[in-house]
Specification:
Helix content: 40-55%
Radius of gyration: 28 Å
Largest sheet: 6 strands, mixed
Strand order of the largest sheet: 6-7-8-3-9-10
Mean pLDDT: 83
Order of helices and strands: EEEHEEHEHHHEHEHEEHEHEEHEHHHH
Strand content: 15-25%
Oligomer: single chain
Shape: elongated
CATH topology of the largest domain: Rossmann fold
Low-confidence stretches: 309-324
């Protein structure tokens, strides 16, 4: 049995983009296969939206090449644009019109042969049929997001580009949008999604590419990315208990790093580490208020990708070193403050006394 292979839907070949003196993207090489959902992850300012703008032809790279569905973005024409659907962060809907009227207007731009039939299909797909005659202006943010996706699907594009698909929506709508996107993939669409959320990528994406400051850090499956960053044992405890636990866990196999938090500590474990023995050590070492075990979040994934695994346990040392002078020497700081206040009071009293004049 041969494994199914997919042709590239989008190819970035050593792509860089500079605007003025600012380098927005740096030497990006990335291939996005057809019939998959591929996520672009990264914090605000990472370059995700800029990368999408290259795909849809709003910008051209300063260097390198971008090809979409086998064609260079420099040669975009009407036929190519009809193969791409776009959902940007701003929905840009006509709020004084109904949902159906918004879709009718877009259908006229694409000169669809059977517009009414196609509008009914996308309304049914996105669960909007019962709201078709509602003005867009009265809709919730989640419904507007679904209308924007419906609008992008009207012309049945091969490639759907979505910037923050669940921006500003509630949990129920979020899961509904995920279901719609996965259904579209099953029907042969390729979907490129930019997101800030690791759980979103885990829910819908086949692969994810992580960007930061315009640089591509890694491309792999969501499961591989989570395994790379591991899990976190969050411990709610005092600073004294935190120091004791940090020393007790030093050189323990399976620990990536230990970080101080506002409520205690976070102990990061490799994906295959069983936390039982570590939890037992923690409980025996110091008193705790609470603890919980969870997967790493996106911010923690970034730190892992930048720093790599800390095989020499240097983070244990940094935990104690990064505490400020004030935290390390509270008594001395208190004495200095008292002395300063005393000097200020003395100077105020001295300056308020009448000065005796000379003869």
């Amino acid at each position: 049995m041969t494994q199914e292979t997919h042709s590239p839907a989008v190819v970035f070949d050593k792509v860089s983009l500079q605007i003025g003196k600012s380098k927005i993207l740096s030497n990006i090489s990335l291939t996005i296969p057809e019939h998959q959902i591929v996520g672009l992850l990264g914090p605000n300012g990472a370059g995700k939206t800029t990368l999408l703008s290259l795909v849809i032809g709003l910008r051209e790279p300063t260097s390198g090449k971008v090809s979409v569905l086998g064609q260079s973005v420099k040669n975009y024409g009407e036929k190519m644009r009809k193969n791409i659907g776009v959902v940007l962060q701003e929905t840009s809907l006509y709020e004084e019109l109904t949902i159906e009227e918004n879709l009718e207007f877009v259908a006229s731009l694409y000169s669809l042969q059977t517009p009414k039939k196609r509008i009914r299909e996308v309304l049914d797909l996105l669960g909007l049929s019962s709201r078709a005659h509602d003005n867009v202006g009265i809709l919730s943010g989640g419904l507007k997001r679904r209308v924007a996706i419906a609008r992008a699907l009207l012309h049945d594009p091969k490639l759907l580009v979505v910037d923050e698909p669940t921006l500003g929506v509630d949990v129920e709508t979020r899961h509904a949008i995920w279901s719609h996107l996965k259904y579209l993939r099953s029907k042969g669409h390729t979907i490129l999604v930019a997101s800030n959320y690791l759980d979103e990528a885990q829910a819908i994406c086949d692969t994810v590419s992580v960007l930061n400051k315009g640089t591509l850090l890694v491309t792999e499956s969501p499961e591989e990315l989570i395994a790379r960053a591991g899990h976190s044992l969050d411990i709610d405890c005092s600073s004294e208990s935190g120091e004791k636990i940090t020393k007790a866990l030093k050189n323990t196999k399976g620990i990536i790093r230990v970080e101080q938090t506002s409520t205690g500590l976070s102990v990061f474990l490799t994906g295959d580490t069983i936390p039982d023995s570590i939890v037992n050590t923690v409980i025996k070492t110091a008193s705790l208020n609470a603890f919980r075990f969870r997967p790493a979040d996106l911010a923690e994934v970034f730190r892992t990708l930048h720093a790599g695994y800390d095989e020499n346990n240097a983070d244990f040392e940094r935990y104690t070193e990064k505490k400020s002078f004030f935290a390390k020497h509270p008594v001395l700081v208190a004495v200095i403050i008292v002395l300063l206040l005393s000097i200020i009071v003395f100077l105020e009293i001295w300056s308020s006394q009448p000065q005796s004049g000379g003869i």
